[in-house]
């Protein structure tokens, strides 16, 4: 089923100036879903899921957070934090005139979704959370992203070189996820360092006490054998949230290579949030 797709933008006024954020809308109507990308990745990573959800009648929006994709990329670490990202999602809802949305995302986007539920619970119809980064992922996250921060700060030529090498590759000639990897390599050293610094030297997610106070229904997706996004964090989150169901993917690749099952789970959940909510917890293996 073909759905309409529209690119939009809005502006945030801050102490450092005016920042532009870009988003894509899929479909139409009042059953809003907002999807947020992973760290350093573009919003286009959620294009397949957005199209699948829009085909079910949902109005889906994917957003490039500040410092990512085609949004502005300031080089001040103070503008980057999980709370600031959550506020950007709320500002998007204000811009769209959406009172509520199912808010979800992957990795960084999962944590941002939790932040939105913590700072603006009245705007969250439901949470669609894949690969949250919580207590069990701290060490692996530092090991994964500290070298990126070091390279961006002290070896910026490596970041420039990777960008120059990957930008000329036509995205239409490579598989979709290879194109996302190429887009993720399109970084600027100053903005990249500021983004990683801002995230890792602030709070990574709402506290366990705040998470337990989130009343919105949630679908939490985790997968095994992923040290940065351990399944234990996803399972723990599903236990903490009062109205959550846990879905275990076969691996990190399932939603990328064979998305049908998880697309169906996500669509059923979002439609349920906008129709009849089911409070009963269930686990899907």
Automatic annotation (TrEMBL):
AB hydrolase-1 domain sequence ranges: 32-135
Recorded superkingdom: Bacteria
GO terms, molecular function: hydrolase activity
Record's keyword terms, sorted: Hydrolase
Family annotation (InterPro entries): AB_hydrolase, AB_hydrolase_1, AB_hydrolase_fold
Name of one Pfam family that matches: Abhydrolase_1
Name assigned to this protein: Alpha/beta fold hydrolase
Source organism of the structure: Nocardioides aestuarii
Organism taxonomic ancestry: Bacteria, Bacillati, Actinomycetota, Actinomycetes, Propionibacteriales
């Amino acid at each position: 089923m073909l759905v309409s797709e529209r690119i939009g933008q809005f502006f945030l006024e801050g102490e450092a100036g005016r920042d532009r954020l870009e988003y894509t809308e899929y479909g139409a109507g009042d059953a809003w879903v907002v999807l947020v990308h992973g760290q350093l990745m573009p919003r286009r990573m959620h294009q397949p899921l957005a199209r699948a959800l829009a085909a079910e009648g949902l109005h889906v929006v994917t957003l490039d957070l500040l410092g990512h994709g085609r949004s502005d990329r300031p080089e001040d670490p103070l503008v980057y934090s999980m709370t600031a990202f959550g506020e950007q999602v709320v500002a998007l809802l204000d811009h769209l005139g959406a009172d509520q949305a199912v808010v979800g995302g992957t990795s960084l986007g999962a944590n941002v979704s939790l932040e939105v539920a913590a700072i603006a619970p009245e705007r969250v119809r439901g949470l669609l959370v894949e690969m949250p980064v919580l207590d069990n992922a701290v060490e692996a996250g530092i090991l994964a992203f500290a070298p990126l921060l070091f390279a961006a700060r002290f070896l910026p030529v490596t970041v420039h070189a990777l960008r120059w090498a990957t930008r000329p590759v036509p995205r239409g000639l490579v598989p979709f996820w290879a194109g996302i990897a190429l887009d993720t390599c399109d970084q600027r050293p100053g903005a990249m360092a500021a983004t990683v610094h801002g995230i890792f030297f602030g709070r990574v997610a709402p506290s366990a006490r705040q998470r337990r106070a989130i009343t919105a229904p949630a679908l939490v997706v985790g997968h095994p054998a992923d040290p940065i996004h351990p399944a234990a964090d996803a399972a723990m989150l599903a236990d903490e949230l009062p109205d959550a169901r846990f879905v275990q993917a076969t691996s990190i690749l399932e939603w990328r290579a064979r998305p049908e099952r998880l697309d169906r789970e996500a669509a059923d959940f979002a439609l349920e949030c906008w129709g009849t909510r089911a409070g009963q917890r269930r686990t899907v293996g």
